Amino acid sequence: MSPLLHLCLLGLLSILCQWLAFRLRLPAILPLLLTGLMLGPALGLLQPDQLLGPLLFPIVSMAVAVILFEGSLSLRFDQLRGQNKMVRNLVLPGMVVTFAIATVAAHYILALPLPVAALLGSLVVVTGPTVITPLLRSIRVNPKIATILQWEGILIDPIGALLAVLVYEFLSASQGAAALPHALSIFGFTIATGLVIGALGGYLLAYALRHRWLPHYLETIAVLTLMLAAFGISNELMHESGLLTVTVMGIWLANSDDLDLERIIEFKETLSVLLISALFILLAARLEPSVIALIDLQALAWLAVLILIARPIAVWLCGLGNQLHWRELLLLGWIAPRGIVAAAISALFALKLQQLGIAGADKLVALVFLVIVTTVVLQSVLTPTVVKWLGQQAPPCNGVLIFGCNPLAQAIAAALTEHKIPALLCDTNWDNLSHARMQGLQVYYGNPMSEHAQSQLDLSLIKRLMVLSPYRQQNTEIAYHYQDLLGKPNIYRLAEPNTIQSPRKQQRHHHQSLFNGQTLLELERRLMQGWAISSTTLSPEFVWQQYQMQNPYAVPLLALPPKGRVKIFSQSSDWLPQPEWEVMALLPPNEKNGHGAV
What we know:
CATH topology of the largest domain: Na+/H+ antiporter like fold
Oligomer: single chain
Helix content: 55-70%
CATH class of the largest domain: Mainly Alpha
Largest sheet: 6 strands, parallel
């Protein structure tokens, strides 16, 4: 088979694995690694060293640099300060405790040299949103625990990667050094080179973006190119300082004021998905059967220490002084799947350590992959039972995600919030969102389809999507995106004017049409004329038919059964409000104080 066909099939398999993970709601890393193991060690169909030859090492290095840069773009210091004490403890002292226990256990149980054991310990402290988010979406967990785990994954990703880079820099610097002072001096120069070039590159990039030196269409590709250039220059000046350089550059940009990084982050996310998919298949395929055979009882004992001792102890120490129940601490101590950063960096460092001739390097990737596969599979299978046993299930899903933050959307969100129903407003218009925030409504600024939204949007209590924005093309994309997450019957969108939408297009949209076919323009016109949302509780003496007769111009929006899920009026509704239900409708000024209205 030609190299070209190999690469084309690799891309096809990568997309297939990503799609399969999406459909099964699993972390994508699991099918990617299993595919690589099947094609490489099991069947011998894919041999990365022969396929890429001398380009394998540079390609892996550049891919890891992009992954680290993309992850560090999300590390804002104000977000770290803004999180509760438990999240900060897990990200900083908790990470150090896990690192220390994993290192000591690897040294004594696996008989690894202490430097290699320390590198292994640094690689397994990172969870990350790519493994936490799919797990939380498939398992209904107490929202407080879900929030802590989600923020820990987001923040520990770049910080844990930086720890691994620093440990490796020290290990690399100490090789061949005649004395400890010489090793420390090389380590110091390496760190200084990474910090200086990273800070300088970050400053120059921020300055160029802030002053619009680059045309709009070149911004994203220029940032990628300049980042890789800084990576290469740093490595040339001081061996192996490039990974620290790109991490510092990303952190510098993330914490620079007056920078709009949304397009850059989205581009890096897309590129990272492509690189990660191909990279993991290649790295898993590169494992030799003899290396996999190194997984023995000692490796399993070390894994047990990591899962059952290191993480629980770290969580318990971090929970001292926090208002968390012991059941919540037990659950936090159980859930810690490892993911992308651990796999990518371990494979890169293993290649480098093998070139340096360091003993134990051949075990590194096999052990990290063992941790990834075991934690993802074990925790995906057993966590629902653990959550139920500890009584930490999330309350029933009854919330509404609203795309659009116009006055209509804000009025509906305010009405839902007043009735204790979770409502989350999403929009790309900051002015609308800022007004909603002043009302105390929950908002998300950005594209709700982005990778950033997938890691930071808390959908644990969300059951339905209401599309209320004027962005027609984006409305369709978001509706189809969320129908795979929430189910097609739970996707509602406003009708569009017939004058601007052909019948063929209308037939393609099979989502629920909100509010009996009312358009956004018609509803906003009513709001400007003084119409308002009013709530009325039906009773045996005042049934739905009487309500309609008394309020002939009302636009019914929502119905709230006494102890049931919120119901949304649509053209395909096959139910009628019953006595004791509360009906929320848009009423004209002269009807707002009708029978039963509040």
